[in-house]
Amino acid sequence: MSDTLQLTVDDLSIEYGARRVLAGVSFELRTGETLVVAGANGSGKSSLLRVICGLQRPARGTVTIRMDDAVFRPAEALHLLGWVAPDLHLYRELTALENLAFFAAVRGIRCTRAELEAFLDEVGLSGRGDDLLAAYSSGMTQRLRYAYALLHRPRLLALDEPTVTFDARGVALVEQVIARQRKRGITVIATNDPREERFGDYILRLGQ
Ligand SMILES: Nc1ncnc2c1ncn2[C@@H]1O[C@H](COP(=O)(O)OP(=O)(O)OP(=O)(O)O)[C@@H](O)[C@H]1O
Predict the structure, then answer these.
(1) What is the tally of structural domains in the chain?
(2) How far does the centroid of ligand 1 lie from the alpha carbon of residue 126, in Å?
(3) What's 82's domain CATH number?
(4) What is the ipTM of this complex?
(5) SMART domains recorded for this chain (predicted)?
(6) What is the DSSP-derived secondary structure letter of residue 75?
(7) Probe ligand 1: pick from 16, 159, 193, max atoms within 8 Å of CB?
(8) Beta strand residue intervals within 68-205, DSSP E
(9) pTM across the whole model
């Protein structure tokens, strides 16, 4: 795997109308590194992750993703980005496997049923692929969000409240995902749970 992935956040400000949420945030990460973004409710953690993932624009500043010799803005780098968040909505009226098949098709990935089932195995949902998502518990839905995010083996993984609704085995799954991601690329984690700060090599505290 290449070791030349780089995420550069430069002088970033995020505003909603007249409300400034973030001002002048800068940092740089490289392959193998994990950043934890910590802060109180409403300090801007989720907003920062959404900007990094190209889901919303900043008021000022830039996010740059460099891979080998290529330079991307987040909206051009969706093939490199994976995002797990409580506001990531999957389709309750589809089964888990149908959800994964749909999102794989959206990403232009061809997957067999066996390959999709392997993703479910990876997140601890073996044998539950034909259940409707409406029948999933909150922790099982969170596991499926991981399968969704990892479908294309992203180089940059953004995890918003990574262990929310998880039991001890779910937390172990998150640890495993982060450990694997260290070999593949970069992880950025947003949390207000002090227990999750141990996941990071660096901690960025917002709202101070
Ligand atoms: N779409 C939006 N429109 C207007 N204001 C928003 C929007 N999204 C977030 N905000 C505001 O931006 C601020 C930061 O919200 P954000 O969700 O980024 O915080 P957070 O640190 O992730 O909070 P939490 O820990 O509660 O998840 C809050 O004041 C919130 O009300």
Answers:
(1) 1
(2) 35
(3) 3.40.50.300
(4) 0.97
(5) AAA
(6) G
(7) 16
(8) 70-72, 81-84, 156-160, 186-191, 202-205
(9) 0.95
